[in-house]
Queue: 2 jobs
Job 1
Amino acid sequence: TDLKRISVPQLMACKGQRKIASLTAYTAPFARLLDDYLDMILIGDSTAMVGYGLPNTLSITVDQMAAHAAAVVRSTQKACIIVDMPFGSYQESTQQAFANAAKVLAASGADGIKMEGGAVMADTTRFLVERGVPVLAHVGLMPQYVHTMGGFKAQGMTDEAAERILHDALAHEQAGAFGVVLEGVAEALARRITKTLKIPTIGIGASPDCDGQILVTEDILGLSGARIPKFARQFADVGAVIRGAVEQYANGVRDGSFPGLENCFGVKK
Ligand code: KIV
Ligand code: NA
């Protein structure tokens, strides 16, 4: 087929025209299933928690992110593919950020990167964009700041904090970011940032008025354990389907009904 992937400029052109629907994927089977329905797929560093069972996102590496991204790119044709830069791979200097972004894009074939950080990271956004790396900024609740925040907490609840986050988003827009993820911010603030910016805002725990939405796929499918975050909605209980199938398989092995002779080789009829 000659299906063409949605490009970064095409995502930008969605602003004011149609909503951007996006989710995370880390592996081939999910990427394959998601691709027909989404404008953008993010290989989120949330895979540290969701995929690897770690307590936060801080210890995933550039090589791990690149490997997950390569699996997702290989398994999709349509969605724009964006990869999270992991903690410690871009904060040190603009040069470090470019070297690692180039490594991730070259190893995976993804379309662009996402990185966390307020106005302080805008110089890095500019450095990357001017050198051919599309950047999706991520402000508000930034999980890589878990230790400075003292946990995962909604942001922008005071006027002062709201002004700072608006300033952060504007700084990245001015630096050339193609969009901004707004995570865990007050609804009115997300609405205001969306109205103020010319580039799309992608909300997660933000506002229905954002230009697009993103969630962690496992959270909407009943695959992320007992508690689902306030900002997510469980659209299906795939976990229950998997449990049912695995139970039937285990029962079949134990009662001898699996495998059947149709599953075996060289059986004489
Ligand atoms: O890592 C992640 O999954 C994310 C979002 C869902 C925005 O950064
Ligand atoms: Na992330």
Job 2
Amino acid sequence: AAVVEHTFVVSQMNVRHLCKETLVTVVNGQLPGPAIEVNEGDSVVVHVVNKSPHNITIHWHGLKQRLNCWADGVPMITQCPIPPNYNFTYRFDVADQEGTLWWHAHVTCLRATLHGAFIIRPRTGASSYPFPKPDKEVPIIIGEWWELDLDELDRRMVDGDFDDNPSGGTMNGKLGDLYSCSGAKKEGFVLDVEPGKTYLLRVINAVLFSECYLKIAGHKFTVVAADANYVSPYSTDVITIAPGETVDALVVADAPPGRYYITALATQPPKPDLQVPKFVTRGIVQYSTSQSSGNGTAPPCSSHEGVGDEAPCVDEPAVAPEMPDQHDTMPSYYFHGNLTSLNRTGLPPVPSRADESMFVTLGVGSVCRRGQSCKRSGSKESIIVATMNNLSFQLPTTTMPLLEAHYHRTGDMDALQELPDRPPATFNFTDRALIPRGPKEGRLEPTSRGSLARRFRHGTVVDIVFQSTAMMQSDSNPMHLHGHDMFVLAQGVGNYDAERDVAKYNLVNPPVRNTVLVPRIGWTAVRFVADNPGVWYVHCHYEFHLSMGMAAIFIVEDGPTEGTSLPAPPSSEFLPCNHAHRLVP
Ligand code: C2O
């Protein structure tokens, strides 16, 4: 096993898109940031040098961080944020997972430009992919382009008063030919393929809050992994991917040589019934014509490298895929429901029963602004927050990260409030009338804010049914758990009914994911083993919902035996949040 070492210099840079310079925060001057590529079993060291004006942490999304919660990268939960002009080093091992994950800043909306791929290949020498070896591997990162300052965007989200959309969608950082600057068509991401060859696309949804449909005209995908867990090969012409999720899919270049669009469409719930898509972005899958044509072919579009507006290309036609309707949630429902894990030896079995079970509603509610009393929801003094079991998360004001407080058993942990196993009995989450009609009206349940946490004894098998509610403006919810993968046992539309729905649980080959999509006004049942000691964030991966408080903390206690308790903090690097880190030299 190797040690893979990177230095991430976080800084601000001007990027020119849509005829305009926008100041964005990036890693190593790249957008998306550098990919980390490892083999299973490797160790990773990343030195983060913060030359930006922001407090930063980097989260290794989906990496299990076994016995290493210290490297999880969540501000004030696992570490002090890295202030401007300071360094911090992340060290962790990659074990028992293969496929595509990603990294992103876990600070406000900055993750819209601070992210990159994290690619885990099989252990060197020991094994290989459980599918035919692809001729080439290609990360596809679906992103967004915001002209709005991302700090400002976050402030609006926290205030629950938010009505903004990105200026465009990106594929591997390129805006593509649907977004032109003063009429000049711009080429986006280009994937050059050779006839008959097989490509492994490593697809990552890094956008702030849209599920996406991805298609390539004239081609089919064979999905082979999701969230760095192999799945039984699943053939489909459309991939659905929610923020936080990753999908690995094989594509064979078996169409008549030509140019084909690869298109990502941001989906929207049926209501509000917006006719304009939030964004659609497209790149080109381009067959090499070298073998087929001898007559001096047109020069290819100039260098696709670099950041910013791309070089104009010869405006050659390409075949466009027929996309699902942006309001149709069914392709997503079927895509997620059709995945099963690949049967391989050595996989941990699905526990046959749970020790504890929770039913968690995902909704919105209204709280009074700080220091104000408000008589009714929807009034000026109230703000809309996102909830789990009708409670909205906020970080406690502690002097040290919660993980450290937990490790040292300090009184800071008393600031936490228990996340109940069920919603309150008086809380009406099924009533359609609760759907807010506009940003300022609608009847919202009164709710409250707290530092929600749930403790688990080491090794507890936990069942959670996540229930999306009518309050959620018909949104789905990609729920992400840090430090653990979850077995996705079943999903359904409407309200969960234990009597009826337990029978649907797949205990044989459920897909295993770190992010589970809870369908709009529907539910998803998951099971996981709380066996990784530490303090782990669980939250909706829509940045909008997270900023508004759809989050909680799961505390997994130390186990009784060797190798089941949280090790001491890597001391040299873990100093208190008084900004006493080493200065950038
Ligand atoms: Cu990818 Cu806590 O997030």
